[in-house]
Amino acid sequence: MGLSKSYLHICLYYEEVEKSYQTNKGRLVCVLKNVEKSSFVVKDKEGREKAFVPEDGMIALSFQDTKGKLVLINDFYEKIGYPHKEYNKLEDEEDDYYSEEDMKWDRLHKHGL
C-alpha cells in the first residue's frame, strides 16, 4: 500500500465474490456480496493492525506473478464469477503437416527463415 511499507492482508472467500474482471493494468477486481467471513487488515512494518473496509464493495488485487493470477482465473473462474470463454481448438486434418516435397527443401522446417 504505497511507500509507507504497510501491507493489506486479505482472506477472501469465493462464495462472497459476486463477479470479477480485470483492469487494463492487470488488476483482478472482485465485486463482493455480503462480506461475513472474509477479512481485510492493514499491517504496518511495526506489526500494528487496523481494519480495512473495501470501497463500494469492491477489492482490486495485484499479483506479484502472472502465474498465480492465471491459476486463480483458469481453475476458479466459476466460483469468482470471472467471464470465461471456451475457445475452439483448431486441429490439422492431416497427420503429417509436411509433405515429401517440403521435406526435400526444408528438412529443419524453417520455411525459409
Characterize the structure shown.
By secondary structure, the chain is α+β, with helices and mostly antiparallel strands. 15% of the residues lie in helices and 25% in strands. The chain contains two helices and six strands; from the N terminus they run ββββββαα. The strands form two sheets. The protein has a three-stranded antiparallel beta sheet, with no helix packed on it. A three-stranded antiparallel beta sheet has the order 2-3-6, with no helix packed on it. A hairpin with a 5-residue loop joins β4 (39-43) and β5 (49-51). The longest helix is centred in the middle third of the chain and has 11 residues, at 66-76. The relative contact order is 0.17. The mean pLDDT is 81.
Task: Based on Cα principal axes, name the global outline.
Answer: elongated
Report the end-to-end length measured between terminal Cα atoms.
48 Å
Quick check: average pLDDT?
A: 81
Class from helix and strand fractions: alpha+beta
Number of strands: 6
Quickly count the helices: 2
Poorly predicted residue ranges = none
- State the major sheet: 3 strands, antiparallel
Can you give the helix content as a percent range?
A: 10-25%
Lateral strand order in the biggest sheet: 1-4-5
- Residue fraction in strands: 15-25%
Rg over CA atoms, rounded to whole Å, is 23 Å
Give the topology string: H per helix, E per strand.
EEEEEEHH
